[in-house]
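Reopening closed ticket. The problem is back. First fold of the pair:
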Amino acid sequence: MLLDLGTAGRCRGSGQILRWLDAEPRHRRVGTWLALLAPRAHGQVARRLTAAGVVRPRTVRRRLLTTAVVHVPTDMNRAAWARARLSVRLQRGEPLSAPEARLGGLCLVTGLDDFLLTGLPAAARRHLHRETAARSPAEIAELFTIARHRLDGAAHRRR
């Protein structure tokens, strides 16, 4: 699910993380914070988005009689809006806002760019790469690089 980054930033709990970052001035490297935040990130983000009414938990059946909890959007139109808006802007070659560039960067890092760019010309992919690079501050670019390396490493370990 691609959500509106503005909504995610207003969820309860994001201020707590910013206060934690501010209280640890000796730790400023993105990789350090990624290592500290990653183990709890999924649960914390799911709780904040559930509390904000953006998603709701649903238990689904998996193989071998196991179950898992997934988080589904409460409003599919709202959930699809960020993707639709970003796709249209890429197709038209329009400049991306900073939050759109971050969303595009996350799509590139996680492989969701294929989903985002389905049916669009190759120029849209080039535009996504240009805009993401041009509008990402150094810290965000570093985060994308670290995430890409970790995801690549995880993919290699599964083979």
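Second fold of the pair, where the issue appears:
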Amino acid sequence: MTPRLRFALTLFATLIGLSVLLLYTTLVEDVLFKGVAFCNADSIQLTFKTLGIGSAGLITGFLTSLLVLQDNYYPNLVLSAAVLAKVLIFVGCEANPSPFWYDLLLSTTLLSGLWMGYYGGIKFPLSPA
């Protein structure tokens, strides 16, 4: 594989991964669990929201690892940096009703799902490597 093609696939996987991550986290947070925050929900709703966020990361990591066609972790590094930037920027907003540790837990779950999906995509027996 030429370096130009490898770079193009990495860029393509990063852009698709960002859009899929945005799509699935929006689906979980704003459609399935709209209005569920730490202050106004019971433990079952919070658990399912956390599992939904983790599965969004899992799907995204799996998809990006299959798109790059090789053992290339750069798209997941960019996605991880985007998640960490989201935590650092939006966690201090006044409109955020959840405490800092809960948002940190959700972001850690998202990052864990992202990297577990990457590992699953690398070890997937039908991946084009």
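Update: turned out to be a display glitch only; the data is intact. The chain has a mean pLDDT of 86. The helical segments are 3-32, 43-67, 74-90, 100-123. Please close again.
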